[in-house]
Amino acid sequence: MRQLADIAQRYEKGYGHFTTRQNIQFNWIDLSRVADALDDLADVEMHPIQTSGNCIRNVTADHFAGAISGEVEDPRILAEILWQWSTGHPEYAFLPRKFKIAVTGSAQDRAVVAFHDIGLRVLRNEAGVKGCRIWVGGGLGRTPRKGRVITDFVPHDDLLAYMDAILHVYNRFGRRDNKYKARIKILIDELGLEQARDEIETVFEQLRHRISIPADLRKRVEAAFAPPDWSGAKPHDLERDLALSPSFAEWVRVNTERHRDNRHAIVTVSLKKPGDTPGDASADQMRVLADLAGHYAHDELRISHEQNVILPHVPKQHLLTLYRELKRAGLASANVGLVSDIIAYPGMDYCALATARSIPVAQAIAERFAELKLEHEIGPLKIKISGCINACGHHHVGHIGILGLDRAGVENYQITLGGDGTEDATLGDRTGPGFDAEHLMVAIETIIQCYLDGRGSVDESFLDYYRRVGMQPFKAALYPDRAAVQRKAS
Predict the structure, then answer these.
(1) Exposure string for 199-231, b = 16+ CB within 10 A, e = fewer
(2) Distance of CA 357 to CAs 101, 186, 190, Å?
(3) How far apart are CA 121 and CA 134, in angstroms?
(4) CB 253 within 8 A of CB 239
(5) What are the tens digits of pLDDT across the range 340-379?
(6) Which residues are registered as beta bridge partners of 155?
(7) Rounded CA gap, 169 and 187, in Å?
(8) Torsions phi, psi of 435, nearest 5?
(9) Contact at 8 Å (CB) between 271 and 18?
(10) How many C-beta neighbours within 10 Å does residue 52 have?
C-alpha cells in the first residue's frame, strides 16, 4: 500500500481508484512513465498482468475470507491456486472475450459468484469431502445473466480439471464474430444448459486423471494464508469504549463485523465520505491505512468489491484508537452498506467507453442524504451506478441501480430496483423511462420516500420491502405524471 501511495504521488495526480475487481486503477500516468511505474510495482511483487485483454482476469474472493465465521474453507486458497493455474496459461491467452472467476467459502455470498463467468462456492458433500458448487455464464453488461449451476459438487482434487474443461469448451465454441456475443453467458444461452454440461463433462472425463492440484502447492498456499497469531489480543470490555462516544458506537455498529475470534473485529474502512469520489484514496490516506494496518491489524488489509478497504483482524482493544486515527485522516465515515456507500465506476470522467457521468451523480446522492440526515433511518441500501452499458458499477444488482446513457447527446439515467448480488442473487427490474441529470435526484428521493412511507417497520429493509410489494408502488410514485415530477424538481 505504501508503494501504491508512492506511485500515485510520483506518476499520478496524487490518488488511486479502487475498483470492483479488488484492484487499483491509476488513470493519469503519462505513457512515457508507465514502464517506471511497472518497475515500482514489481519491487513489491505486484503487477498488472491479465487485468485487461481477452484472458482470465484476476480471481476475486470474499473480502472477509479467513476472518468471518461460518466458512467451510478460506476461499483465498482456491483463488490463489486458480490464479497460479490461469496466469500465462497458453491456451487461454486469447479467449473469445474477457473471463472472470470468483470464489466464496461460505453460504453467505460476499463475492457475487452468480454474476461471474465462473462462480465457485466451497462446501462439503454428505461424506464430508470438500469441493465446489459451480455456476457458469453469469455476468452483467448489455445482456445481464444470473449464472446457472453447471454442477452441484466437484471435489477439490478434480477442480482444476473441471475448470479446464469449462474453459476448453468456451474457447472452442465461444463466438468470435461479435464481441457483444462473445461471453460464455451467450454460449450457455445458445447451447442450452444441458448441452453445455454434456460438452464440459466429456472434456472433464478426458482430463480428470491428468490435471490436479499438486499436494505440495496446496500445502504452500494454505501456509501462505494461515491466520495471524491472535494470541496477543486481550479480552476487552468494548461496551465501556462504546459508552464514551456515540459517534464511535455508531461506527462500530455500521462498519464492523463479528470476527471468528471473539477478541477481534473485522473493520471496513469506508472510501465513501459524502462528497468524495467513491473508491478514491489519496497517497496520504494510503500511507495512513498502511500504518494503521501495521499498528492495529496484524499488518493486513484488503480491498472489497464494494470499493472499500478491509482490516480483517483488529483486536477489540485497538478499535477506539483506530477510529480516532481514521477520523483524523477523514476515513471514519460510518456509512458501510448505507445510502452513501455507493459503488460508482468513473464514467465519463476517466473512461473512454462511458456515455454518461457517474461520479457527480454519486456525490450528489451521498451529499443530499447526508444533508437530510436520513441515512441511518433508511438503513441498509445498496446504490450502484454505471456510466455505460458495460455495467462496471454493477448497477444491475443494486437495490437501486442507476445506468447512465447518451440519448441524442443528453445524459439519461435508467433506474432499476430490487437487484441483489448475494446468495439470493437477483437482477434488478427497470422502473420505466429514464431521467435526465436534472431530475434524477428527485426520482431517487421519490423512490426512497415511497419505501419509508410504506415499510411495515423500521426493521423492514428496502430490499425486503421491494420483494414484498413489487414495482407498482414505486411506478405510481415516479410516473403518475412526468410533468409533476419535473415541476417538483424546479
Answers:
(1) bbbebbeebbeebbbeeeebeebeeeeeebeee
(2) 28, 28, 34
(3) 7
(4) no
(5) 999 998 767 777 777 788 999 999 999 999 999 999 999 9
(6) 131
(7) 10
(8) -125, 140
(9) yes
(10) 9
Q: In the prediction, which pLDDT does 488 show? A: 62
Query: How far is it, in rounded angstroms, from Cα 107 to Cα 124?
Result: 11
Dihedral of CA 221/107/61/157: which sign? positive
Q: Which residues does the chain have with pLDDT short of 50?
A: 483
The Cα–Cα gap between 188 and 220 comes to 36
Helical packing angle, 2-11 and 34-43, nearest 10°: 170
**Amino acid identity, residue 132?**
C
CB atoms within 10 A of CB 188: 23
Residue with cell 514502464: 35
| Among 365, 461, 453, 457, residue whose Cα is nearest residue 404 | 365
Kindly tell me the burial class for residue 171, based on how many C-beta atoms sit within 10 Å of its own C-beta (0-12, 13-18, 19 or more).
middle
Nearest to 64 by CA among 432, 312, 297: 312
**Which of 310, 333, 313 minimizes the C-alpha distance to 323?**
333
CA distance linking residue 396 with residue 221, whole number of Å: 34
> CA–CA separation, 102 vs 58, rounded Å?
9
CA distances from 173 to 145, 161, 320, 400, 469 (A): 19, 18, 56, 36, 42
